[in-house]
Amino acid sequence: MSSISPRRMRRVLIAGTAALSAALLLSSCAGGAGSDTESASGVDAATATSLADFGTMEELEAAAIAEGQLNVIALPRDWANYGEILDLFAEKYPEITINEQSPDVSSAEEITAAETNKGLDTAPDVFDIGLTVALQNTDVFAPYKVETWDDIPDALKESTGLFVGDYGGYMSVGYDSSKFDAPEEIGDLLGSDYKGSVAINGDPTQAGAAFAAVGLATLLNSDAQNDGTLDDFQPGIDFFSELNAAGNMLKLDVTTATIASGETPVVFDWDYLNASHKADNPAWEVVIFDGTGYAGYYNQAINIDAPNPAAARLWQEFLYSDEVQNLWLKGGARPVRMEAMIEAGTIVQELADALPEAPADTVVPTEEQSSTAGTLLGEKWASAVQ
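Now predict its structure.
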């Protein structure tokens, strides 16, 4: 098992293998997209790989404003402060209409939406996506290096900019403290007190948060702790199979509404997402179990067939700016440029200080481990929890 200090921690969020969904067919406003991607300055925005290709930020902004649209997908407004981030972009660029599509779909379904709507002006311009799905779909992405590229740790970015980590956190368990005592270890969730109460955020063959829940269970399973590896996710699958057999696994999609209503009183999810639910349920508390922590990042990517390629690249520059990196922090997530911003004095220190204490040891799966785990889950998950 590799361990990394919290400050130097390398974190990547993983998502499961893709599952096609016809429900993602988006209504088309018009015909083919991207027929003319050349900006007023003569730059072909669809092939631009950095701000230098446009010349200046002002020229990129002008090209994006000329397009007038930005199609985003899978960005829930209550997820890591995305609501405030989207509103800030709209305030900064009122000439650009943000089309928020299918906010609650998985990483895999984002790719399906791009494929289903290829050539249409409704196709996603950008993706917010997990590592495993990103690795499986690099041909869907356009390489782009943001102006703050050098601040991003090498371990958290594809070398040409096809996909880049942006914000992350630790896998945790949130629970309604009015109904349950704090679980001290993951095995406590197998007890009869948790009958029909424990949910994960999605399907681990499609959604990164759910995939990471199985990864955490792999780490904290006693046998896996002895092995100290993420080479084999079977112990995590076995844990959830046992949880299901005990009648404790709750097969509901986790949303803000299900937590506010008490339908999902115990939830595996990223710490920043679990922490946000205290606003909906004052009794909601969050536990990061002792022992090795499982951390991860979401990645940003540009659709190679983006109907609004300049706006897509402006969105990337916006997300990796100091202002928005601090907004991830405000949402309880750890921004990818955090270390560089601390050194530069551009971090909002009170927000950084408010983050939960990080585990002493942290691991993340390698690309090979992620791919192997995705394959294993695709083969065994459904039968393990049926």
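Residues 75 and 82 are 7 Å apart (CA to CA).
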